[in-house]
Structures are given as C-alpha cells and as structure tokens.
Specification:
It is built from four helices and four strands, in the order ααααββββ. By secondary structure, the chain is of the alpha+beta class. It has two domains: 1-91, no CATH class; 92-131, no CATH class. The chain binds zinc ion (ZN). The site of zinc ion has 8 residues, from loops.
Amino acid sequence: MREKFIRFMYGRNGVDTLSKHMMWGAVILCLLSNIPYMGFLAPISMVMIVYGYFRVFSRNVQKRYAENMKYYYFVNKVKAGPKKWMNTLKQSKDYKIFKCPTCKQKLRVPRGRGNVEVSCRKCATVFRGRT
Ligand SMILES: [Zn+2]
C-alpha cells in the first residue's frame, strides 16, 4: 500500500508551502463560515481545498514550483511592509525623504539644512527641496 502510494506520487508536486497554507486557510474559512452572515466563505474554502489537492497531485512540477516561489515573494513583501513603514517613521525625525521627480528613487537628506539642492544618485536629476 505504502509503495503503491509512493509510486503514485512519483513525478507529482507533493505538499509544498503554498498548498499547506491553502489547506489551513480553507479550514479556517470553513470554521468562519459557521458564523451568521459568513456563509459565503464555505464555497471559497471548498475551492481552496480542491485547488490545494490539485497542486499536491499536479504533474506540472515546474509550474507549481513557480507558483510557490511567487507565494514566498508575496509573503515576504507583506512581512516586510510594517517593518519598512516603521523604519521610515523612525527616520523621518532626523531625515527628510525626497522622491526623485524623474525616476521616483527615494532620497534621504538630513533635516534642518533649509533649502537645498538635491541631486539624484540614480539618474543625476537636480531638484530643490526644503529640509
Ligand atoms: Zn532620479
């Protein structure tokens, strides 16, 4: 039986982080769907379970791997969001952050220098700003 299963799973994607998280998300949505007015979550959780199993048994490993990597990228971006925001807030006391009008690069200038000429390090555009 065990060998049969191993043979069956050969060449398939198997359980990866995205499928695992999707299954757990489906379980949570399923539980939440019992709350009044939250019933619309039940079909969503069903779709997530079906898609999660589809990913586990999929033979297109490369495509599933790419999806998993995209998911990692997304999660890391979401995780970094509050940290980045806090960092900007902390720095805003000592530095004024300018955005280059040409290339949108963020530039940091120490506060309390009055009117300054800022030159972008990335594209060399020069613009004026108050610190
Ligand atoms: Zn620039």
